[in-house]
Design goal:
Blueprint: H1 8-23, H2 28-33, E1 38-46, E2 50-51, H3 55-65, E3 70-73, E4 80-81, E5 86-93, H4 94-124, E6 131-133, H5 143-153, E7 166-168, H6 170-176, H7 183-194, E8 200-204, H8 207-216, E9 220-224, H9 228-238, E10 243-247, H10 255-261, E11 265-267, H11 270-273, E12 280-290, H12 297-301
Parallel strand pairs: 6-11, 7-8, 8-9, 9-10, 10-11
Antiparallel strand pairs: 1-5, 1-12, 2-4, 3-5
Helix pairs in contact: 1-3, 1-4, 3-4, 4-5, 6-7, 7-8, 8-9
């Protein structure tokens, strides 16, 4: 399995798009009501229990608007935080902080939500050999961030994209079957010949597919939408000769039961496609002294 680390080249691109989307020509409210000369301090506070994830991304948002803003994390990535915990403190130009607030919170709330749900799912199979995996059902452009949050929460990352593992799904098998009656075996042979360094996974809809994938030498077999009884039989057929992944129709309530069947992995798209954002707010206070430094060139860019 992969473990995703933050890719700040991608993150900075997302941040620039998000700021331009939100700020446009300028933050008219902050510039007209607050002005440029006020310094402030603020706290990022979670209003519900959560696993902290995404503080580096939130910090990057504030720094993009004003490089002189001070951002001090008080929670660790992966730490379980109780309601009203202070995740970070911020100090600097008040207008800059207000302009960055919503974009920074949008990143942080979603990533904390993913990490929190991932922790819950991973805990459901604790004590078994089964690991919880994410999928490619991620927000377009956010995959690096969302898979990072899954790992921070304690689950594991499946393939990152189409390039880092061969995954022969039903549509691939169907098209390969037009050329040969042995679609699975032929697909595995072709994949290994063209990409010998990549692991090969085969999606199996039936126990017959499981036998064919095992015979073809697949590194992983995905048991797609199988009943518990069928998965038990698949475990017997494979007998530890390759890794088994359960997927499709997997609800949280089924996790523990599926894990006891003996599969190696359970992949859950819900970790990223159905997550609830955590309620996090920024509480700001004016300082008694004026902000004496000039706004950064990056902030001026968004002031019009």
């Amino acid at each position: 399995m992969n473990t995703v680390k933050l890719d700040f080249d991608r993150i900075n691109t997302l941040i620039e798009l998000a700021i331009e989307e939100d700020v446009g020509r300028c933050d008219a409210t902050s510039l007209s009501v607050i002005g440029r000369g006020i310094a402030a301090e603020a706290e990022l506070i979670c209003r519900e229990e959560c696993v902290c994830a995404g503080l580096p991304a939130a910090e990057a948002v504030f720094k993009k608007l004003d490089a002189k803003v001070k951002f001090v994390p008080l929670a660790r990535e992966g730490e379980l935080c109780q309601p009203n915990a202070v995740l970070a403190k911020i100090a600097g130009n008040a207008a800059s902080m207000l302009t960055a607030e919503r974009t920074a919170l949008n990143f942080l709330q979603r990533l904390c939500g993913i990490a929190t749900l991932s922790r819950k799912y991973a805990a459901a199979v604790k004590g078994t050999k089964t690991k919880i995996l994410d999928t490619r059902k991620t927000t377009p452009g956010w995959r690096n961030l969302e898979k990072y949050a899954v790992a921070v929460g304690g689950a594991e990352n499946h393939r990152i994209g189409l390039y880092d593992r061969i995954m022969i799904k039903d549509n691939h098998r169907e098209l390969a079957g037009l050329l040969s009656k042995e679609g699975i075996a032929q697909s595995v042979r072709r994949a290994r010949k063209m990409y010998p360094k990549l692991e090969v996974e085969v999606e199996a809809d039936t126990l017959d597919d499981v036998r064919k994938a095992l015979s073809a030498g697949a590194d992983y077999i995905l048991l797609d939408n199988m009943s518990d009884e069928a998965m038990r039989e698949a475990v017997k057929i494979v007998a530890g000769k390759t890794k088994l992944e359960a997927s499709g129709g997997v609800t949280f309530e089924r996790l523990a039961k599926i894990a006891k069947i003996g599969v190696d992995f359970i992949s859950c798209g819900a970790l990223t496609h159905s997550v609830k954002a955590i309620d996090i707010s920024m509480d700001i206070k004016r300082k008694q002294i004026p902000c004496l430094y000039l706004a950064s060139a990056e902030r001026k860019k968004y002031q019009g």
